[in-house]
Amino acid sequence: MNVKEIALQLCTCTWLEIMTCIGVTLYLVYNSEYYLALITIVVFSPLIAFHFAVSKTSNDEYCASCRK
User: Fold this and answer.
1) If 0-12 CB within 10 Å is exposed, 13-18 middle and 19+ buried, where does residue 40 land?
2) What gap in Å lies between CA 7 and CA 37, rounded to an integer?
3) 50 or 35, which is more confident?
4) Could you say which DSSP state residue 68 is in?
């Protein structure tokens, strides 16, 4: 896998959601808002799982080339 493929993978919708979830959760934990951090994880988890499931079943050329 080359640098271009890694960069494209990090710009996919799933990775953006994961990074957003991590960022928001860490910010809330930093501000001692543990209950809101837990709600953030609960809200983002099904969305991230759905996107992983769709990407595994997708037949796009891009996804097929990333599975090498």
Assistant:
1) buried
2) 28
3) 35
4) -
DSSP string, 4-63: HHHHHHHTSHHHHHHHHHHHHHHHHHHTT-HHHHHHHHHHHHHHHHHHHHHHHH---HHH
Residue 13 and residue 47 in contact, taking contact as beta carbons nearer than 8 Å: no
Is 0.85 surpassed by the pTM of this model? Answer: no
Give the confidence band of 48 by pLDDT, cuts at 50, 70, 90: confident
Centre a 10 Å sphere on the Cβ of residue 25 and count the other Cβ atoms it contains: 19
The alpha carbon torsion through 17, 22, 28, 32 (nearest 10 deg) reads 160
Predicted confidence band at 54 (pLDDT cuts at 50, 70, 90)?
A: confident
